[in-house]
Amino acid sequence: MTIILHHLENSRSQRIIWLLEELGLDYEIKRYERDPKTQKAPASLKAIHPLGKSPMIEDDGEVIIETAVIAEYLVEKAGGKLGAPADKKGARLYNQYLHFAEGSMMPPLYGLLVVGRLGPLGWPARKPVGQMVTDLLVWLESELAGRDYFAGSQLTAADIMMSFPLEACQVRAGLDERYPNLLAWLERIHARPQYRTALEKGGPYAYA
């Protein structure tokens, strides 16, 4: 049965298209556009799941939500391809970064977005929230000092999960030449043909 991905433009669901391309699984994309004024997802997504969030996939009659859970599900479906490395440290790093992307990176990035939209009311929060992001980037830069990918020497689903927050950081949160290891990692993932194909299939994506 073909996997259906409910994909919102300019969103973290772009990662799931890339993952599906890397895994070679059969899938169909159903695209949704953001409201041009509010930038929110359309109400039609709530017909698929009450929370109306993207990404979500349908497979074997089940709707699955949460990006990391979807990633784990698809990796298992593909027989473990792009899953945790065999060594203990690699497996730990894989699980760490699979969930770090949403659990640690996205909250302050979302905070910066909200603060930016508040205008003068958000100025007091801008510096402390920005410092949170900077602290994360400094640490991640040191993490990639001795390896090409987040879980080791090979691409895994953990890298795919980390792509969206780090691409967002490059656009709006100070990821620049001060972080050469992170920039080199972005160049590596962006050069992959599966990544380029996913961009073509996904439609508008502001962070690549």
Describe the overall structure:
The longest helix has 30 residues, at 88-117. The protein has 208 residues and is of the alpha+beta class. It is built from 7 helices and 4 strands; from the N terminus they run βαβββαααααα. The two termini are 31 Å apart. It is globular and about 50 Å long.
Q: Would you kindly provide a brief summary of this structure?
A:
It comes from Parasphingorhabdus flavimaris. By secondary structure, the chain is α+β, with helices and mostly antiparallel strands.
Layout of helices and strands, plus pairs?
Layout: E1 3-8, H1 14-23, E2 27-32, E3 56-59, E4 62-65, H2 67-77, H3 88-117, H4 123-143, H5 157-172, H6 180-190, H7 193-202
Parallel strand pairs: 1-2
Antiparallel strand pairs: 1-3, 3-4
Helix pairs in contact: 1-2, 1-5, 1-7, 3-4, 3-5
List keywords for this structure.
single chain, 208 residues, alpha+beta, Glutaredoxin, Glutathione S-transferase Yfyf (Class Pi), Chain A, domain 2, 4-stranded mixed β-sheet, 7 helices, 4 strands, 52% helix
